[in-house]
Amino acid sequence: MFKKNLILAWRQMKKKPALSIFKIMGLGLGIAVSLLLIKYISWHWNFDRFNLNAERIVRIQHNHYSEGTVSRSAMTYSGIPVIAKERFPEVTGYTRLGRWIANDVVFRHKENLYRGRECFFADPSIFDFFSLTLISGDPVNALANPNSLVLTESTAKALFGQDDPLGQEVLFENFKTFVITGVVQDPPLQSH
After folding, report:
1. CA 74, 152, 41 angle in degrees (round to 5)?
2. Which DSSP state fits 133?
3. CA–CA separation, 41 and 35 (whole Å)
4. For the chain, percent helix, then strand, then coil, each to nearest 5?
5. pLDDT at 33 over 90
């Protein structure tokens, strides 16, 4: 049966070679696009799955209604999680993250400058929710004080090289001094 179909396909290819090449290229292109689409969906599906409590973490969404349209955002009022914890027994805790308003951020330590794209202000409870591994520092006290700062490993290396950053001061955006209280392992690429 298979041999018969193979012979039939070979005859069709010899009879109409241009159409056969076109069909084979279409099949190959379809398979390639399907594989790329599967890879793309798999990449996005696995975002933030490295967190041990990923199934229990919920992000509050803000819906803004204006003139018949709805705009959705992950940004919401800072008091919403506090009220949710008070009113709903299902909410066991919360942590708030706020992104720095500029497109990039500048840290300065002595002569060293670091310009990065991501900077978040966070509650001390961030280490209770997200699986962030502290290389140095104490997760309980890392963000306990108002002017404390936890850097990623790559940022700490860019600013301090091989020196120990704990207890050192950095100037944030040339106006605010923060004390380094921890260094966290760089999060995976599939992380918000």
Report:
1. 50
2. P
3. 10
4. 35, 25, 40
5. yes
Cα separation, 4 vs 93, whole angstroms: 67
Look up residue 159 and give its two tokens.
């600013």
Distances (CA, A) of 125 to 11, 23, 29, 142: 70, 58, 49, 10
Q: What does the pLDDT look like over 98-125, one tens digit per residue?
A: 877 777 888 888 888 888 877 888 888 8
Neighbours of 139 (CB within 10 A): 17
Neighbours of 106 (CB within 10 A): 15
* pTM of the shown model: 0.70
169-185: average pLDDT:
88
Q: How far apart are CA 167 and CA 119, in angstroms?
A: 19
Residues 6 or more apart whose Cβ sits within 8 Å of residue 31:
none
Please give the pLDDT value at position 81: 86
Three-state secondary structure call for residue 4: helix
